[in-house]
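Trying the structure run again after the queue cleared.
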Amino acid sequence: MGNEERRLLGLILTMLLLISGQGCGSPSMSGEAEPVDDPIAEGPEPGDDPEVLPEPDTALAPPTDLEPEVLMLGSLSSLGTHVWGTAKDNIFLAAGWGLLAHYDGVRWRPFEYQGPNEFYEMSCIFGLSYEDVYVGTSRGTLHYDGERWNVVDALSDELVLDMWGSGPDDIYAAAWSGLLHFDGFTWRRIETDLPEDVRWMRVTGSGEKHVVLIGRDSGSTSRSRLGYFDGIRWREAVIPQEAILSDVWSAGPKDTYAVGRDGVILHFDGQSLTPMNSGTDEDLTRVHGTPGGKAFSAGRGAFVQFDGDVWSSQPTVPNRGADWVSSVFAFDAENVFLGGRGLHRFDGASWEAELPYSDRVDDIWASTPESVLFAGRENHRYDGVSVELEDFSSLGAPTLRTAWGIGDRIFAAGDEGLFLYDGEHWGNLVNQSNVDASDLVDMFGTSEDDVFAVGDDGSILHFDGAVWQAMDSGTEVNLVGVWASGPDDVYAVGDRETVLHYDGSTWSELFGSGLVDHLALTGFDAEHIVALRDDGDVTFSDGVSWRPEPAGDLQALHGTAPDNLYGIGRNGLRHYDGARWSSINEFDMGIGEFSIFAVAPREVYAAGPRGVFRYAIR
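Done. Tokens:
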């Protein structure tokens, strides 16, 4: 029986069920059990020792054992990316969309609890140990006690710009409302002898009797100010009139460094400020150093190092990584971290992207766990160890919106056209349609000369191995997903509950004009197709009838088998085992666009506003 005949029979059966008042449920998507062989017929002859077969190594760990790992950062916060730690294997990260993560020397793991939704603008991070870490945000402060993050009630609704302390009972917070201090029991506002019209922005120190502040007049002049506590009283140091300061770091009462605009660096010896030759005239926005007397400062297009005697220019972060520097943290000369557009590490000679950045990942495609493409505004590839920018050579840096591949060949569409990766290089493909490739949002094929792409206004393109040509979809609704079990069995879904089918010659509409829109489409064979809707339902099809089932707040889905389907959304990763949906991890992914790809039964990649994550068994 052909697909069209089966579909017609299914529609007739569905109508009969509706007339008789019966439900439209269907069995789970898991396949039927294989018949059991006759144990007598297959058994050993009497007197023979039965053969002992090894246990098959096919058992999978439960999906609930999957743990997320941060691979890339996304959604750059207006307050920046911030890092702090006690050692190279104990580093905390506060990044865009309120992402909180910890590095244990092997991988970056996001904390499942990320704080209230309004805490998505992270302004600073400071701690004393693994069990005592603070994060300032635009709406309050979080504290980590080694087990969980909690809101610091006394600092609620406070924009905390910076924090520093000498111990758990001596912590300062430079807040929008003024300077605050924690004595181990209570947060209170500090009254100082410093000018009242100054907004203190940065705080540092080296002990209870040595604290340094920098800020600016809140009036029209915005003049920089430097205040300090000498153990007896708060005093102010005179800053050269032309110096506009951005950050300060102190190694001790006689060794404090303040940096700022036009490469200015001032040294404070506890009494006066002395200009130093920074070796650059670029703006310096952040500074940090090591107990050994080295200091590092960075800004857009500049990175300088102090060796104890002189400042000298060092290599800058490549690929726009230092377009905006929001934090610098140094453990030693071979481990300097810079937060901005991603997180980067300086090893004493060159930079590497510890956590690259892309503010939008529209699609993920993987041929193996060692070759995962993250397609978006900036395209990256993961090789199983690290994430690197994809090299498009003379094609520049195109913005890709969708990708699909077979073997080591990858097809892609984006703002600059249609592309093919042949296993070694990227090249352009001919588009003979009048459809703008930037309008295409999904792609799927059955072979390298049979590829479909769908997009806005009912656009469908087909690649025959030579050129892309337009097809008549018969609709003008936006299409968002395409999937095929074969050249004559292709589905596309879109807005208004639209479901289209291609039989090898013509596209026809199966459903449409509904009240909800589709978000995605995937499948496994001709009898297992899955569509995701924006009302929280997933629609399963056996190639004949379609049945919706609640799945939660999902935004994207993909899987490796009908009983191994994954979905990602605002509330984290979910899994479908062929019978029911269950939550794997409730890590909040943020609000925005999502994509997901399961490269193996227990290896899943997901992208959202907070970045790109790999879910795997540890």
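The radius of gyration is 29 Å. Worth checking whether this holds up in the mutant runs.
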